Amino acid sequence: MTMFISSLTDTGATPALVRTMSFTHARLAMISENVANYGTPHYRPGQLDTRGFQRALRRALDERGGEVSKPLKVESGRQVRTLDDGSIEVTPSKRPVENILFHDDTQASIERQMSDLAETGMTQELMATLLRSRIDSLEKAIRGTV
C-alpha cells in the first residue's frame, strides 16, 4: 500500500512543488532574520540564490526523467542539498548580492529585503495552490468522483 501511495505522490510535478516550497520556506525565514537584524552594525544578511536553485531543480528533474522510483535529488552548490529522507537542507550565503557597503558597515537594504519577501511569498503561495490542486485531484480519483 505504501508503494502505491508513493507512486501517486512522487510522480509528476509533486516532488518539484514540495522541494520548491521547502526552498521558499527557508528563504522566507532567512529574509525574516535579515529584516529583524536590519540596522544591526556589521550584520551581513543571508542570501539564497533563487536562480541557482531553479537550475539545480531543472537538472534534478532532467536526471530523474520518467523514472518514478528514482529520487529527486536537488543539489545547488553549498546552498542547497538533498538529505537522505528526501528533504532539502538550505545554507544561506553571507556574500552580498550587490557590492554595497552602507555607512553603518552593513550590506542590508530594507528595500531589497521587502522586494525579496514579496517575490518569495508569491512563489510560496503559488506552489501551495498547485500542490493543493494536485492533492485535491488525487482525493477525487481515490473517491471515484472524477
Give a concise summary.
By secondary structure, the protein is mainly alpha-helical. The chain has one domain. It contains 4 helices and 2 strands; from the N terminus they run H-H-H-E-E-H.
Tag the structure with descriptive keywords:
2 strands, 4 helices, 146 residues, mainly alpha
This entry's quaternary arrangement is single chain
* Percentage of residues assigned to helices: 40-55%
Task: Provide the number of structural domains.
Answer: 1
Given the structure, what is the number of helices? 4
Radius of gyration: 18 Å
Strand order within the widest sheet? 1-2
Strand-and-helix sequence, N→C?
HHHEEH
What is the terminal separation in angstroms?
Answer: 21 Å
Specify the biggest β-sheet.
2 strands, antiparallel
Q: Can you tell me the overall shape?
A: globular
Task: Write the SSE topology.
Layout: H1 2-9, H2 14-36, H3 50-64, E1 80-82, E2 88-90, H4 110-143
Antiparallel strand pairs: 1-2
Protein described:
- It is a single chain.
- The chain contains 4 helices and 2 strands, in the order αααββα.
- With 146 residues, it is mainly alpha-helical.
- It has helices spanning 2-9, 14-36, 50-64, 110-143; strands at 80-82, 88-90.
- Helix content is 55%, strand content 4%.
- A hairpin with a 5-residue loop joins β1 and β2 (88-90).
- The two termini are 21 Å apart.
- The chain has one domain (2-135).
- A two-stranded antiparallel sheet has the order 1-2.
